[in-house]
Amino acid sequence: MSSITPLANACDDERIPCRSSLTIGSRRLDSSITQAALSGYSDWPMRFIARRHGASYTVCEVMLDQFLVQIKDRRRNRHLLYLTDDERPVGGQLMGAEPELFTAGAKRLVAAGFDVIDINFGCPVKKVLGKCRGGYHLGQPEVALEIVRRTRDAVPAHIPVTLKMRRGIDESAKSRDDFFRILEGAFDAGIEAVTVHGRTVVQRYDGESDWRFLAEVKQFLGNRTMLGSGDLFAPGDCLRMIEQTGVDGVTVARGAIGNPWIFARTLALLRGKPLPAPPTLREQREVMWEHYCRAESIYGEKRTPVLMRKFGIKYARLHPRHPEVRQDMVRVRSRGDYADVLQKWYDRDEPGVEPQCDQ
Q1: 60 counts as catalytic
Q2: Which end of the chain is more exposed for a tag (fewer CB within 10 A), N or C?
């Protein structure tokens, strides 16, 4: 879907609801563009940089309820619950199988200082489904709603509880009915907002996200807050989702990895301005190095190179010679290696390119 070129002044079109802010319960966000929870990615350094580049709200990588209950406060685990005041508001996302453990896990996230508690009923990964977690709950409304009620009861009233869903287990009529039963019951139980991904659990990440379904859900919800997710890889995608579905905001997932500029560039379109050019190589270098240094501050010198290698591969998509840059990033084993790649490929202040989408 990202192949469609966005209109430079699309917010001048009366059809597009250009919202200047987004509300999740008591939390008023600066804009309707947010960053999703990303397993293995949305740690503090990534969230911090996304906020710096215009994301109004970010969510940490999903936490297992059982793991949260058992986790020890050690340096090796420090990054999992690490957050800072300058990235607020930030959400903590929770996933699990048993309602009782959800309660304990939610309390741990509250104690860690997260501003919003997000329940994950959307993860489509097979090993997650096999343990009755994530998207599995979309097929058992009674258990799903018990989890929502218990979590809402366990979390202080001033902290919003939200829900992440896919549009059902599969394409069946029963799956659709279960989706709307959980959705309506969750708002009755006190959740403040829902994020809906336009694919089914069975689809995983194959095929297109069904934005028509998102429009239907938003119409059903009325004034209740809904964020849309799925196939958001470019600023034009974010703009079109808001235009076509009427959602209150969008949450960018894979499209934000190695591309924090997607937030500021989308905001420009929402404000009726021309689409900014992709960041220059020098601008990319500055952000990539800051990302590395922030990661090193919480992971340490030994763990950071391997961690940042996967980010570097994603950042490389904005370089005009991205295949060659990617190959050098794959070989990164140390701080020096990473610095050498930046010196070799990003020392010139040349134009960047639109990221090559490897969905």
Answers
A1: no
A2: C
